[in-house]
Amino acid sequence: PSGSLLYSYGPHQRDETNPKHDDGTSEAITLSVPFTFYGKTYQTAFVNNNGVISFDEPIRQYTPDPFPLVDGPPFVAPYWADVDNVLGGDIFYRQTTNSELLEDISRDITQYFPKNPFTATWALVVTWDHVAYYGSSSEKGNTFQAVLTTDSKMSYVIFNYWDIQWTTGTASDGDAETGLGGTPAHAGFNSGDDTNFYNIPGSQTDAIINITTTSNVKVPGRWVFRVDDFQVTSEDPPQATKNCWL
């Protein structure tokens, strides 16, 4: 969308599209460049409809659990909630070495992490485009994006939140008309062990609806993390938190 934080996506970028299945997932994606996450290197990822990118195994769970989770694969969760792309929306993904896009990503990350100049050599761009929630009786849709990128030494994840209209599907005790209540969405990182994880403030509370107005890099709607050796970025409390959380 014009003026948004989202990097380019969609059929015109030759993105793959996830099947229209409730709690569905992509095929196994063999990463053309290995991605290091919490000190471990992975070569297989899955784009899961319910707002999660996982390593080695898919994740079909629709109601989020608090991190850390120690009994499942490691994953990145830009917005873990009960998406139903049968009712509406699309989930796009692609691996890319497009020089123009990598230049944009490199410039953004170097701006946020000036002590570690970064030149991306690869990225996985995953976009949930106006996706509906399970049990929806409304036209509400969420649009958000996660970008995994590396220079083969450092690895980063960018979360971009453009339009968040709902937090909860009905199977997670949300309201069919509003998409609110119950057990709301969760955003963050889970390493697969019981010590390394990060929860974006507001996760699993009603306040997660406001994630388009919060940031850890002073850009509302964008959260950026170095994840090879995971580091929490910037200010505490995060930028804009005081004004925007419920």
Automatic annotation (TrEMBL):
Pfam families: NIDO (PF06119). GO terms for biological process: cell-matrix adhesion. Residues 12-24 have a biased composition (Basic and acidic residues). Residues 1-25 are annotated as: Disordered. Residues 78-230 form the NIDO domain. This is TECTA protein. The lineage of its organism: Eukaryota, Metazoa, Chordata, Craniata, Vertebrata.
